[in-house]
Amino acid sequence: MEQAGGAFGMLRASLGVMNLRPPIVIGALFAANVFGCAAQPAAPAATPGAASTSRPTEGFRREHAEIKEHLEHIAAELGKLATASPEEQQASMQHVVAFFREHITPHAQWEERVLYPAVDRRAAAGANPFTASMRYEHGIVARWTTELATMASASPPDVTGFTRRADNLLGLIWAHFEEEEEVLLPILDRTMSKADFDREIGAHGE
Predict the structure, then answer these.
(1) Is residue 147 part of a domain?
(2) pTM: predicted TM-score of the whole model, two decimal places
(3) Cis peptide upstream of residue 156 (ω within 30 degrees of 0)
């Protein structure tokens, strides 16, 4: 099975050289209500760091955290578009589109090939894949990224429209990541060992 560690390593390397700036964070999640998750009793106190480091999905969660830092930088860049010069606006818009195409799109494609099938096999969802709604959201991400590319290439570009759509996309991605971390990944944490996860899905962040 394809390993994702190399792809995520390239992501960290490429993002690390970007000159990006701080944040406007958008998006909130209602996954607990959507999936009808009941509140659970508080767990007993544990040794600091013990629970998180023992989760099979911890490496993948770290990758998400790194991507989210860069989403914050992208949001800050969008916040400065309206007052930037035309040349700076063009460069920033192209940079935002490149980020979504080169990093978010491959991330989503890998999840659909590797991560989501592993969740579906363990979620006992019957004929309907448990991750169907997540896959649909990936389609929205792809569609909005294409819209942004079209807007960024227009002459003159619609900066207000671009910013609004990019803000929409950032909000969707933030909520999507939280759904994965709070709904999907716990399924794998409960049903897989670290060795199982690394063998079937791939070692992340190592």
Answers:
(1) yes
(2) 0.72
(3) yes
